[in-house]
Amino acid sequence: MTATDLTDLLLDALGKRIDDPAAVALAQALGSKPFKNATPGNTVHLGSRKLGIEVAASMQIDNRAFFPPRKDGRSWVTWVSHAFVYPNYRGALPDGFDWSLDDAALSARFRRRVEGGLEEVRYTLPPPREGLRAKATLDEDDNRPRHLLLAVAEEADYATVYPGADPAHSVEDGFFAAWCALHGVLREDRLGADALAALRERRITPLALLCDALGGLLWENDVRPEHAAFCHAYAKRLMEPDEASALYDAQAVFGDSNAWRKAGEAMTQDRWDEYDRIAPRYAQRWQQWRDGEIRSIVDHPHGADATS
User: Fold this and answer.
1) pTM reported for the whole predicted model
2) DUF7832 domain location, by residue (predicted)?
3) In this model, does residue 25 exceed pLDDT 60?
4) DSSP H helical segments within the chain, as ranges?
């Protein structure tokens, strides 16, 4: 490893706490002070324009190994989460990747997709090590890679009940989770036979399913791959049109989502008769998705793998 080749240091630091020796060594190699603790909604960045690398640390990574976010004393536990590498970086690159490759060459080597609200062309590279991910983004004006993302592997988050949060704010998430479980959206091995039977027989409520049987998480790896883009767009208001999303359906059926209600407002109850009111909406949205009437604004499955 040369003086400007920080790849081994970076790969060692990703996923480590910022006070871990690997993270401290990376910060020193970047010529920076140690990482500071992040706070909710804020990410800490260290970088070197000269070296062509920017590294970030976060207190929240959507990966089950890092869930839930937690405090150590008064500070949030913070992890080295991801890094952007730019064409002037002179360190080692993932196998098969090179800054000189154009769209056709990149597409021949890696899975190509159009992603994000800006509909950027991105390529999924092999993970540099277990637990990480790598993705390159094309500069379409230059027809060459703009940057490379190296990061802790994450899942898309559809619904999360955080420890200490009021479960009543997640009642509608429980309804959607129950619909997913009852209609073959969850992965086959995600629920045990006893839990699925209890749900079908309505011996447990939808919110109990989400909080207990699913551990408070309805994330990307909980659903079948063919349903992932739909669940992400529907649950996170990333649908086109926007009103074909979970929040707007909850508002149309119940008046509002519990998470958005003001103090003292009547809340939608975790009951099966309430589930029966909104379940047809879920089925309608899934059929509209299959018919191409609604789509994700960040994940573009139709023609996404075709080259330009």
Assistant:
1) 0.89
2) 174-255
3) yes
4) 7-13, 21-29, 103-109, 171-182, 193-200, 206-208, 225-235, 246-254, 272-290
